User: Fold this.
Amino acid sequence: MTSLPVRAARWSARHAWAAIAGWFAFVILCLGVGIAVGTNQATSVDFRVGEAGRAEAMAAEGGLERRPTEQILIRSRDGGRALDTDRAGAAARDLTARMRALPEVDTVAEPVRSRDGGVLMVSVVMHGPELEGRKNVVPLLEQTAAVGAAHPDLIVEETGSPAISKGVNDQRDEDLALSERITLPVTLITLLLVFGSVVMAAVPLLLALSSIAAALGLSMAASHFLPDAGVGTNMILLVGLAVGVDYTLFYLKREREERARARGTLSSEALVELAAATAGRAIVVSGLAVIVSTATLYLATDVIFSSLATGTILVVAVAVVSSLTVLPALLVKIGRRAERRAAHTAERRARRVGRRTERRARRGKPTRAARRGAGDRAHGAAGAHGQDRAHGEDGTGWLTGALLKPARTRPVLTLCLSVLLLLGLAAPALGLKLVDPGRDTFSRDIPAVQVYDRLNAAFPELSSQHRVTVRAAGPDRTADVHRALTDLGRRTQGDPLFAAHAEPRILTSADGLISVLEVAVPYTATSKEAGDSLTRLRQVHLPAALGRVTGIDSAVSGDVARGRDYVDHENAKLPLVLGFLLLVTFLMTLWAFRSVVVALIGVVLNLLSAGAALGALVAVFQGTWAEGVLGFDSLGAIASRVPLFLFVILFGLSMDYQVFVVSRIKEAMDGGMTARRAVLDGIGRSAKVVTSAAIVMVTVFGAFVALHLTEMKQMGFCLALAVLLDAVVVRLMVLPALLLLLGERAWSPLRRSRRTTPGTAPTEATTEATTAARTTTGPTGRAVRNVG
Assistant:
């Protein structure tokens, strides 16, 4: 694992232009292939789970699956409850004629007036499967707008699943553009503060954005093997910028450290090899950890999680490749330019000093160097002491030293208080409630959602619907099934949980084997009443009506059943995914550091940070007190996909910091330091880059809190908080306190395998790179001696 980054860096350093050109050719190729093959979108079949999925599959066998349907409302512009019958009728006839002329439209129903007489509704059924409607709804929206313009005294507006889906997608695109406008400048400013150079700050952004572009192309191609549920692009943008900048930042900072330590005695090629042997290895291990942990999402057997996993894995893999290939080439080019500039500057300075020295010598005056020598010797010790104090006892900055001081001086107290803080934040997660996001949870800023609310107010029986699907063993059972479904319809009409004024409708396939009963519910799909109606239907009315009919198979689907069955499916998969997640995290850490104790610590710390973030998420979003602050309407629950996704992604991202920090500690121990000194030195020296990386991640994830979609807000909030807690509380307080208390016991397998004495045993990570560095030629063509 060490030799791979070194070999890649060595080749890239020696063939810099080829590596740079090859990388951008790879990015263009990925985009070209992706655009050429297009995206294979998931269909309704891919989303089926549980009993609702089984019911939809049976309905599809008989050609009775749900169709994309739009509802157009016609109401008075003056806001009164009375609607002029003649004017509304003329508008409805105009609308019907226009809609029937569209190739996207299958049927147009007769207008229906609301019970209060204030709204006239026209239902339009589109061709194709349910999810295809959002792609073909634009012509319908255009005709609706045209009818409204032709009848200015009326308001003509459209809603329905296709129109709402289009509105959500449009809003998501606008939100993503907003997040980019926020994150890119903040990321650039952060990198400028870290490096103090526009060129060096631009490199991480360039590689992150090019990695995102390549991953987007690859995801299009991958969608033909694993269908895209429409969330893969969001995940590539969300994770790509974060890890792309992080990996480049780790590599850049290490190259800068090696350059400062070498003080001009090593060439740029040698420096990137040394950085590859340490930071490069950490990037590979970290990237593999993220990929392996994210792959556990496939165990959920859900098309949405599969899309999320595919997008994350692709962008992380591409980011790792860019850090190991094109980044060393860019650093060599930048380093050579800096070396030439430094050489010219030094040459000019030497000439000026020479002329000045010559003039002073002719005048008989001592040179400035001679005058300064005595002062330097007198104040050398004090200067060194002051420098040590400025950078902390382990070479760290004053802020890092201050944050590390509690763990260094009072590890037991620091550990207890930090763990109690994280457990306190995690406590609200015990009251976690899940809901499947749907039309009732979307932003009310979307016009189609506003019309949807007015539709439910005027026609409450359209709020949600149960579909009871029955498949008979043969045609001889068709009459019995029809009688049983009729009886079931009568039972629901007498139940206050169902719509009393909506007549249940029975649909039968051409062969008579499949029948569907549609039952209206006057409550939104996410409401408690709608959930109770589903329970009553499945457990009481359905057995009573169909229990005596033999040779049939029945199941219930619909708006409410879909959401409940999806949540139940995720809850059933949660233990399996989390179990494998903990196992692979432990094994990856054990493989990387050869210490059971360190591997266990990594798992426990990841659980603490993820649990604390989830608890804070429940406290903020499950209640209503933060609605005004964060700009959301509380669902009274957390989006069902958020907890599982967050645990997987947070475990992967936490491994970034875990690998980078522990790698520095391991390097120090391999160099012969005591366990205590290695912990303080490793954490102290890695703190600045970890903090910088955390700022970038918090910015990227935090920008999603400004989005409209509540689900994306929840993801962004939880990810940003978890990264912040992981970088500050876990890595600067809990981890050092634990390792200081354990001392040599945390590293006993490592110590037994590496009997080293201080300064005598270079690590495997640096041996190969250092050997190469000793024979690497500098910019002048002479061999450069490695003194670092």
